[in-house]
Amino acid sequence: MSSFDQDMLDELNLLLKFPTDSLLQGLKIHHDASQSMVNAASRLYAKGLITQPDGGYLTDLGIDLADHACHIQSALCPRKSSH
């Protein structure tokens, strides 16, 4: 099994930026966004995970992957100890 490369990490980080409270909310990548974010959005669009090359809404597959990304992030985040 291979590791996540930087493109994959950029895509995962962008998926985590999409609002998950409502399917009626999307995301717009503005012209002043970093090139890595613009490129990540373009790749997610090409993969069918978002509806527009500059953001838009998550597709059904995008919703599933964003949910998985949230679970992975939550599991890997350092937990505060209660000492």
| Major sheet summary line | 3 strands, antiparallel
Count the strands?
3
Q: What is the H/E order?
A: HEHEEH
Oligomer state of the chains in this structure: single chain
| Order of neighbouring strands in the sheet with most strands | 1-3-2
Topology:
Layout: H1 6-17, E1 27-28, H2 35-46, E2 50-52, E3 55-58, H3 60-76
Helix pairs in contact: 1-2, 1-3
Describe it.
The chain has three helices and three strands; from the N terminus they run αβαββα. Helix 1 (6-17) crosses helix 2 and helix 1 packs across helix 3 (60-76). A three-stranded antiparallel beta sheet has the order 1-3-2. The protein is globular and about 40 Å long. The chain has helices at 6-17, 35-46, 60-76, and strands spanning 27-28, 50-52, 55-58.
Can you give me a brief rundown of this structure?
The chain is mainly α. 49% of the residues lie in helices and 11% in strands. Strand 2 and strand 3 form a beta hairpin.
Pick out its properties.
83 residues, mainly alpha, 3-stranded antiparallel sheet, 3 helices, 49% helix
